[in-house]
Amino acid sequence: MTTAQDLVNAQLYTSEDAVIEDALRHLLRARPDLRVNLAIYRYQHDDISLAQAAMLAGVSWPQMSEILVARGIPLRIGPESLDEARAEVEALRQALQ
Known about the structure:
The structure is a single chain. This protein is mainly alpha-helical. It has two domains: 1-30, no CATH class; 32-96, no CATH class. Helices cover 70% and strands 0% of the residues. The chain is built from six helices and no strands. The chain has helices spanning 4-9, 16-30, 32-45, 50-57, 61-70, 82-96. α4 (50-57) packs across α5 and α4 (50-57) packs parallel to α6 (82-96). The longest helix is centred in the first third of the chain and has 15 residues, at 16-30. The protein is elongated, with a radius of gyration of 17 Å. It comes from Candidatus Chloroploca mongolica.
């Protein structure tokens, strides 16, 4: 079995952390269900906005809203701070590009 350290030793990555980050990126790209579940978890526990959760999940803002409602998760409507409002605007800009 190949380990993260094997990939570093072969000079394919600079560190084990880089291996893990790349592996997670590919895993989340291949498994949209994991992205959605991670976005839901972060929405509930890390206080990210609905727009940020949608971006993380790879779905639109209305789709994320529907997913949360379907799972019985209360929506937090509107930003609670100026920084949160700015983060939502930026997340929406990135989603629209």
